[in-house]
Specification:
Layout: E1 2-3, H1 4-12, E2 23-28, H2 54-59, H3 61-66, E3 69-75, H4 85-94, E4 98-103, H5 113-119, E5 122-126, H6 132-138, H7 143-156, E6 162-167, H8 175-185, E7 189-194, H9 200-203, H10 211-231, E8 236-240, H11 245-256, H12 261-271, E9 280-283, E10 288-290, E11 300-301, H13 307-311, H14 317-323, H15 331-334, H16 339-342, H17 347-354, H18 368-372
Parallel strand pairs: 2-3, 2-9, 3-4, 4-5, 5-6, 6-7, 7-8
Antiparallel strand pairs: 1-8, 9-10, 10-11
Length: about 375
Amino acid sequence: MFRLSNLIASVLEGKPERSLDGSIAIWNFTNRCNLACRHCYSYADPNSEDFLSTEFILDSIPELLKAGIRFVIFSGGEPLIRRDIFTIAEAMRKAGIVTYLSTNGLYVSEKNAGRIIETFNYIGISIDGIEEVHDAFRGLEGAYRRSLDAIALIQKHGGNAGIRFTVTKETQENLYDIFDLAERIGVDKIYISHLVYSGRGLENLAIDITPEERRRYVEFIIDKAFEYYESGRKIDVVTGNMEMDAILFLQKFSRRHPELRDEMLRRLRAWGGNSAGRKLVNIDWKGNVKPDPFFPFVLGNMTEKPFSEIWLDESNEMLHRLREHPRSLGGKCGECGVIDICNGGSRSRAWAISGDLWAEDPSCYLNEAERAEK
């Protein structure tokens, strides 16, 4: 996760950088979902049954804390399908864990909006285009209007919700409209996710955009982050699954503020790029533990071995290599002069395309000169 707005503000205002005190777990609490999104990695099915019991999940909280997990993103499927989701989130908050909710918004109602705000530190609602595009991409007519209604309900009850948008061939032209929408309805965050090839995302590799298109959109996203800061508009811009964005961001920042380039470079190196297996872990609906939600290999299963033993296993060679910084990778990544910023990007994309977990990220859009910079 690359927090553009926070970096701009903290460096220009001389404030300490936002550091992650602990690790983030993306937990897919259910495989049930009321939508069939084209890019979904979880093969979500509305007719499946929840595998992990409430009791098991609650009993696992001390294990999360022991392993250094301080943030949990509630995902799915659709996490609000689980009737016990508030019980789980409230228990985690009581234990000192920050809770984020990632939802399609269709289960947000007048009845539960207030409790959602009270239970979750942040609420992200997925919108992947304007009306027709979103509904087609999400597989349900009317989904767009219902997601907007969910944002309005959250705002009505005194909270705020961010927009989550995935860039694909089908949604790309609506990227500009998403920023217009965010400004119009007053959300406080825009999270732009790049496609990772896994699950339905792997089946739909053809819906990914080209590196040239990606670069054009990233340029726009970065420019928007600067525009919002310079105009005083309080919209936080974040990108995900494309850590190379940080190198392009550094170029633009350096042209605007050359005297602060070294400080920004220091912070980007400290951020460290792709954090799968280091500061990021995924727990799927069956209790499988993976370095990220898209990862092709499982580290272990919580129903068979305590989470802390899986995540803190110093003998695990895969974790050892993922936690090396910068990582030792092949191809363009192996010769890259700025790998200490992006850390080689997505290992899941590398595997999907080459069958080699340690190959270059095929989605990198940087040119040879940019990769040669020190």
